Amino acid sequence: MTIPHPLEQVDHADHPLNRRQKALEHIFERKGLIPSNYFEEFHRRATEDWTPDNGAHVVARAWNDPAFRSRLFADGISAIAELGYTMPEHQRNLIALEDTSTVHNVIVCTLCSCTAFTLLGVAPAWYKDLEYRARIVRQARTVLREMGTDLPQTVDIRVWDTTADTRYMVIPNRPEWTKGWSEEDLARIVTKESMIGVARLDGIGGSGAVSTDVSAMPHKE
Amino acid sequence: MDGLHDLGGRQGFGAIQYQFGGPVYHSQWSARVHALSSLARKLHIFNMDEYRHAIERMAPRHYIGASYYERVLTGTATLCVEKGLVSASELERLAGGEFPMALALGPGRLNRSLPRHFEIGDVLRVRSEHVAGHVRIPGYVLGKTGVVVGRSPPSPFPDASAHAMEAPAEPTCQVRFAASELWPGDYESADVYVDLFESYLEPV
After folding, report:
1. Looking at the domain A51-216, which fold is it?
2. What are the extents of the domains in chain A?
């Protein structure tokens, strides 16, 4: 017997979750609490404003500008503000985590599902699932291998559990083959998964080509 | 509360069902649940800590089978009932069926008064104490020893804030633990960093 994953809950109007959501929305509506176009606007922010493109921009700048890189590691929130990015008020600190050829950082929230969503995008479903939350802190090397990154023993793993309102983002190790690339081109190869730390971009562990179509990238030496 | 939500390091879980580059929402209702919970916080119907704790208070049988946005929906609806915005029976009437809520809120607790702040490099132990209400100590670090590697600005103390008590802000420390310290006998080599309020810590 296979137990269905909760995401397989169907999206039809008569589904109990759909009806419960509508019931709650009705209460807010009846009390006049919902601003006009609120749902459309929230959806636009969640899908168009809070995207991993923001984090990718930060990573690309950190790769190309050593002074910015230093400022980012010293004070994340001030550094991202230089690029026009902010985080919600309750998220009081942003710590950028530096990957190298011998260090791999990975982020989780074991107690709920916190992330720096304005930079990384809304957390993916697997990040919020029980399996990732339970296993990544204790079996990081195995979990990363199962997700496509088989790290050699020479790479040390650092797992960051988001248990308070400090937020983290991984600054992946820059691939050597991107030497001379513009910030804009660099940003295009940075993925959400690499900034959470379940993929690498530099080819170590063999995950570089899994989430990035390298052949489509401009190569400017 | 060391409920089922406190998942870090628990054994017996299988493969992660992942999709890289997947959609932000898997259904329309989940997108609207996300928007509603965000609106409720913005309207100060409840705060972030109350919200997290309401999800933790879900009956384990419900929590484990629910998707993330079902947990968000249940936590949000529970708080709307507890704050007097609507009754549970009214929600069930409108939903045309069951609307399961989280279990009742228990007692919270106040910050500890500490003689001094902790600094980077300090070797600290996580106080081995069990808490009935909301707490942001993952069970796997209880009583464990680690080193402070960073500090964050003060935030409201969640153990009080989640229970609508006055919650003076307190700094958190990022503390590094060796996996061998956390799970002696069955671990994979790694350093695990946990962000802990100072009230949770004591000098070794």
Report:
1. Nitrile Hydratase; Chain A (3.90.330)
2. 11-46, 51-216
Q: For chain B, how many residues are written?
A: 204
Residue range B123-203 forms a domain whose CATH class is mainly beta
- CB atoms A90 and B48 under 8 Å: yes
Q: Does domain B1-105 have CATH number 3.20.20.70?
A: no
- State pTM to two decimals: 0.94
Q: Decide if A113 is catalytic.
A: yes
Q: What is the mean pLDDT of chain A?
A: 91
Amino acid code (one letter) for A62? A
Query: Do B76 and A111 lie within an 8 Å CB cutoff?
Result: no
Per DSSP bridges, beta strands A93-98 and B123-126 are unpaired
pLDDT band at B14, cuts 50/70/90?
very high
Predicted local distance difference test score (pLDDT) of residue A2: 56
Instruction: List all residues of chain A from 31 to 90 with a beta carbon under 8 Å from chain B.
Output: 31, 33-34, 38-39, 42-43, 46-47, 90
Q: Does ipTM exceed 0.95?
A: yes
Question: Long-range contacts: A50-53, Cβ < 8 Å, 24+?
Answer: A50/A117, A50/A118, A50/A121, A50/A122, A51/A121, A52/A119, A52/A120, A52/A121, A52/A190, A52/A191, A52/A192, A52/A195, A53/A187
Task: Map out the domains of chain B as residue ranges.
Answer: 1-105, 123-203
